[in-house]
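Input:
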Amino acid sequence: MLLDVRNLTTEFTTPEGARLRAVEGVSFTLGRGEALGIVGESGCGKTTAMLSLLRLLPAAGRVVAGEVLFAGDDLLRLTPAELRERRWRDLSIVFQGAMNALNPVRSVGDQIREAILAHMPWPRDKVGARVSELLELVGIPAWRAAQFPHQYSGGMRQRAMIAMALACNPQLVVADEPTTALDVMVQAQIIDLLDRLRRDLDLAMIIVTHDLGVVAEACQQVLVMYGGRVAEHGPVERVFAAPRHPYTQMLLKAFPTIEHRGAPMVGIPGSPPRLSDLPAGCRFHPRCPLAVERCRVETPEPRAVGEGHVAACHLV
Amino acid sequence: MSRSDYIIRRIGMAALTVVFAVVMNFFLFRVLPGDPAKAGIRDPRLTAAAQQSIRERFGLDKPLLINLEGNPFDSQFFRYFGNLLQGDLGISYNFNRPVADLLRERLINTVLLVGVGEVLAIIIGVALGLLAAWRRGTAIDVGVLLFGLFTWALPTFFLAIILLIIGSTFLGLPVAGIRTAGGASDPWSQIVDVGRHMMMPTLTLTIILLGEFMLIMRSSLLEVLSEDYILTAKAKGLSDWVILRDHAMRNAMLPMIALIALTLGFTVSGSILIESVFSWPGLGSAVFEAVGRRDFPMLQGAFMLFTVSVILANTAADLLYAALDPRVSV
Ligand SMILES: Nc1ncnc2c1ncn2[C@@H]1O[C@H](COP(=O)(O)OP(=O)(O)OP(=O)(O)O)[C@@H](O)[C@H]1O
Ligand SMILES: [Mg+2]
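Output:
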């Protein structure tokens, strides 16, 4: 077991002093070389959960409960110095919208070099060779290391970011919507790249995405979030073949697949709840066609519905 | 277009602007009410020789633009240009000495005052702005904000007079000028003497500039600190100090460079108020006197110097900006 996240709970404090729970009771585990896809509508807490486990939350956010066991150590309890040492060497992140994730006034190669030198006191030529190797690994010619981010296309920037994430041979890479804002061809390239790197380097990966196709193609596990909580979680083939939570069922119906070309696409009516005014009981009940009285008053806890498969619904 | 092309183009543009300003300067002083040169000649304080010299130098017998009888370039306009190229800005009516010499003496004093004041304001302003942004929301931040807003809003002459009073009454500093007449002549005591004269005028200028520098630095850094690449740097395991030094500062300094260049260009002329309050023998007080005495050659020369310094400062800022920011479209 590489990563064991237990009951992760994160709150934001608003300027008025209110405390909003953006993530509540999220748990999952991840083995070496395994990829987990996290899906859910915008605002359901995917990014917040990832930033929480990397301890990169903005000042207003705080992890109020839970553990993040990475190779046995709780990341949430490391001292700042210990944490700095493990960042990027053990786990790295590719941010959502890589447009600004690279510093515009420093060359791409320089920024990768910086990541290497922060963790490994290598001689110059060795670092230079590593930068070239990384760029070529993601399909960028090595001479482009001297260029600046604005001289790259969006897809290249994203690949450069992935190259940088691999700089210190991490065991886990978190990719937050690595393909959003890229065109379909480039999206496919990036996903293929991630999948190939996972196999070749035995990387564990968490891919946050809105695209269920990406999950089907590149992930072994899927975690469906709704309103900051886990709705359903399990092996991809099981969850996709037999979704148990009504939200997952609707999400899958809302996603067009080539196989079901004839079937009508069904959107999910209504919108996700606002954190400042969460419904009592199951957070999905106002939009759930199957909701019964119990759903309005009692919050469903995740429970096993199959091997490695959990769903948080009173009706399963 | 390549980077060196950009530099050449930018310098070329600056040169063109200077030429345009020089032409404007010629006409500006010829459309002012009362012919400047004639006004000078009528001044009874001038000797007959000086009057003759002015007549010749300004070519008052010549036509304004183009000489239609004889050499077409033998006109006031082309003489003005020709003299300028030789560094001849005419003779001051008031001092009866070449304007170029007078300006040179005054410029040194102004550069001393403005240079020290500007450098101090940059160092203190950037440091306090950084501190405030880094400690956002703390008492330090609030203190810096209030101080910045207060000094930014303070009228220059008011602060100058207050500091003049404080300096002379409580600190025993000299009230006016740059040197004590008949003071000791060894270099060390001369430096100390100039330093004592400089203290309050410099402090005034520093405080006047400081507020804006502090506030702009603070907001610029706050903006940079909220950028995604700062989060990337943190995720890479860099320490706060390295992030500040290698990622935040350089980007946050970009707007500061533009601001510094602007103030630098204008403080050469804008220290008029400070120089007059402290009777500092610089360009500012020279202009102030020249206006009072209708010393047109002096004004014309000073205006040209101001224009050129603003253009130079802006060009330098653009080039520096291009060197620091690879995104500047070249
Ligand atoms: N700094 C913050 N202060 C207060 N609330 C925040 C902050 N950042 C995020 N939130 C709230 O936390 C919730 C979860 O946001 P998050 O960015 O994690 O969603 P997401 O699932 O990543 O969405 P998307 O798919 O759009 O990226 C949202 O309701 C958001 O408004
Ligand atoms: Mg997100």
